[in-house]
Amino acid sequence: MTMEASYLTVRRGPWSWLTTTDHKRIGVLYLAGILTFFLIGVTFGFLIRLHLLDPSAGLLPNETYNRILTLHGVVMIFLFIIPGIPSVFGNFFLPILIGARDVAFPRLNLLSWYLYMAGGLLAVVSVAVGGPDTGWTFYVPYSFRTGANVTWPLTGAFLIGWSSILTGINFVATVHRLRDPRMGWWQMPLFVWASYATAWVQIIATPVVGILLLLVLAERFLGIGIFDPTRGGDPILYQHVFWIYSHPAVYIMVLPAMGVVSEVIATFARRTIFGYRFIAMSSIAIAAIGSLVWGHHMFTSGMADEARIVFSFLTFLVAVPSAIKVFNWVATLYRGSIELSPALLLSLFFVALFAIGGLTGLMLASLSTDIHLHDTSFVVAHFHYTMFGGAGSVFFSACHYWFPKMFGRMYNRKVAYAAIALFFVGFNLTYMSLMVAGAAGMPRRYADYLPEYAPYHHLSTYGSWILVAGVLTMIGNLVVSMVRGPKVPANPYGGKTLEWSIPSPPPHENFVGEPDLSHGPYEYPVEVER
Amino acid sequence: MNTAAPEALSHVDPEANRIGMWLFLLTEVLLFGTLFIFYAAYFRAHPADYHLAAGRLDRWVGAFNTVVLLTSSLTMALAIHAVRHGARESGLRFLLATVSLGLLFLVVKGFEWSHKFEVGIYLNSDVLLALPQGQILFYGLYFTMTGLHALHVLIGMGVILFVFARVRARRETPSLVENAGLYWHLVDLVWIYLFPLFYLIGR
Questions:
Q1: What CATH number corresponds to the domain at position B115?
Q2: In the 8-state DSSP scheme, what is residue A231?
Q3: By CA distance, what is A175's nearest residue in B?
Q4: Domain extents in chain A
């Protein structure tokens, strides 16, 4: 350990945090913001499930239910799962992993945090002033006709979009310009590859939804007519443009998660990652093919059969690079010296839950089954398996994996295991019940249901209690350990990537001397044949 | 131990600034591109209405504004060239000329819009809503796209004035003037597409 002050102690006081341009501090600011909004989103979700335990009790009036349902989606997607891994762990670790001392545009980085917070507050506060009742997709024509307040959340989402674009631009420029000259493209850690691919998707997809949301506002207040069927506008066109962004957004959520999983599995299997180039290139392939599959959200909206077949085929195709990753991870684990740490356990949950999410995705991508499953709670379960069970698990995996590096302390492992067990059981109970109910015909989004669906809803609500208990225990454990946890050395896991070569928590300028690039990111000792 | 460590690490990398600017321009292209998709989709549905509605825009005013913006791109390029070669005074003059031409563009645009308002054609107006659907859409897109473009001209003028102040104070970085120029050229380029699509398809 050196005597140099860590990034946490180099300056003190709230003002030093609110004006910081240090990428590590901005990562921590994002962590605070994102966890806050996540807990708000959890509260909304918890209320939805509580209401559905017995709709006749009328816990939430229908209007309120619609608003909470909408805000649950808006908060979880725009404020938690999209920015989660790139903004927190990308900001904190991307520069360190490539041997840089900061991102390319530090001040722009701080600006993007403020845009994120401003947008987030606008969206969340809107629930108190007649918030949106449109669902998070803001489909027209309802979204410009409803009497509810859609202005605030739309403006909020627009600001968050800009925050996302600025982060993307920052990361692309950083990887190109600030990478240590001794580190070639094929020596970059896989998390960097994944973040790089994600940054491109952020840059290319987000402006489209940005202008689209503004157009909804323009339609609402100025009446330009392009979404209004009475003036010749076409609501289907809105859906196309919306999903041109929002489907790639799914990959903004999942790609960085896949990057984290690659790091975590290599570190805790103590093995060179299997198929490095395939994992790196499959990220790019997912980003590329994933940009061309948006139509699968609209199979029942009205579309030419030829288009439906092409979109269905491309959707099947995107499963290939995803599967390549899964096979490579499993091959990395094979004959590794596995340490089943909380971080690895959560990453393995990702592989399992994402596989369920992915396979149910193929059912939805099949044109004929989709007619039956469309707009049922099967879809809800499917995307919660990919987004929450998938990307959400990895967000927490990354929290556990990098916690000692970020805060210089270790969390309580026993509590972490207990929380993870609750999380896993609660998660599957909550969403598997919805999946079965959906296959049996339960429509999504409704505030009420027929009596034959009651058992599924009861199970799902019980599951949500276990799930919330798990999530709160997990976050509580991490927050308490920030202050109380035992101090850890620079490299508690024996990891090989650059962040483990510097003190925990890192010094203000990341590296005391030259970054140590004497070995590659996954150069573990060769295993002796037995 | 250093208690008053400097917060910002001073690295100025003109190449990174250029990459950042080009990526930002890409997002702008996608932003306008989305609107062009709307334009194209409704053009396909209502070609005759587009034709009629476009015929009622004054193509000479549009052509004049095109010349104004193209000239402003020239003065911007000359400003970059001058500053790069140390001719600070003439660089400042060219920057001012660029802003003035931008202002002229907006004034002409303003007269053009207000003339349309006088004959009752504005968003949500009774006159407009009495027209066939294809023409409502055409004018809806016309006001949206030229309005958004005018907003970009305004922002571009602000950026150039900022650059002007920096250059006068001798505090510009190598990439600053160039990046402002790139933005201004993009604004010009968008107009190059708006002009034929709105003014010339009526003939």
A1: 1.20.120.80
A2: G
A3: B16
A4: 14-501
Query: How would CATH label the architecture of A14-501?
Result: Up-down Bundle (1.20)
Range of the domain at B66: 24-200
Which amino acid is residue A250, in one-letter code? V
ipTM: 0.90
Tell me the C-alpha distance between B72 and B11, whole Å. 32
Contacts of A206 in chain B (CB under 8 A): 27
- From residue A180, alpha-carbon distances to A25, A310, A512 in Å are 22, 42, 15
Q: CA of A437 to nearest chain B CA: how many angstroms apart?
A: 38
Pull the structure tokens for residue A5.
């002050």
pLDDT above 80: residue B1: no
Q: How many CB atoms lie within 10 A of CB A6?
A: 17
Decide if B175 contacts B12 (C-beta within 8 A).
no
pLDDT of residue B3: 38
Cβ pairs bridging A and B (under 8 Å)? 120
pLDDT in tens, A83-132: 999 999 999 999 999 999 999 999 999 999 999 999 999 999 988 888 89
Q: Are the Cβ atoms of B30 and A204 closer than 8 angstroms?
A: yes
Q: What is the predicted pLDDT for the residue at B123?
A: 92
C-beta atoms of B124 and A203 within 8 A: no
B184 vs A238: CA distance, rounded Å: 30
CA distance A357 to A294: 17
The helix or strand, by DSSP H or E, that contains position B17, with its residue range, turns out to be helix B14-45
Shortest CA distance from B141: residue in chain A: A224
8 Å CB contact between A315 and A359: no
* CB pair distance less than 8 Å for A169 and B143: no
Residue A530 has pLDDT above 70, yes or no: no
- At A214, list the tokens: 């503004």
Residue B67, in any domain of the structure: yes
Nearest alpha-carbon partner for A273 in A388, A193, A181, A207: A193
**C-alpha–C-alpha distance, residues B89 and A338, integer Å:** 68
Between B7, B38, B123, which is nearest A223 by CB? B123
Q: What is the pTM of this model?
A: 0.93
Q: Which chain A residue is nearest to residue B130, measuring alpha carbons?
A: A231
Contact A207 B123 (CB under 8 A): no
Q: Roughly how many angstroms between the first and final C-alpha of chain B, as a whole number?
A: 75
* Each residue's pLDDT tens digit, A183-192: 999 999 999 9
Tell me the shortest Cα–Cα distance from B118 to chain A, in angstroms.
18
Residue B140 placed within a domain: yes
pLDDT band, very low/low/confident/very high, at B11 (cuts 50, 70, 90): low
Nearest chain A residue to B23, by CA: A169
Burial A206-240 (b: 16+ CB within 10 A, else e): bbbbbbbbbbbbbbbebbbbbbbeebbbbbebbbb
**Among A43-52, A139-148, A283-292, B2-11, the least confident range:** B2-11
Structure tokens at A23: 């990428």
Q: Name the residue among A11, A225, A237 with its Cβ closest to that of B136.
A: A225
Say which residue the tokens 């010094």 belong to. A507
Q: How many domains does chain B have?
A: 1
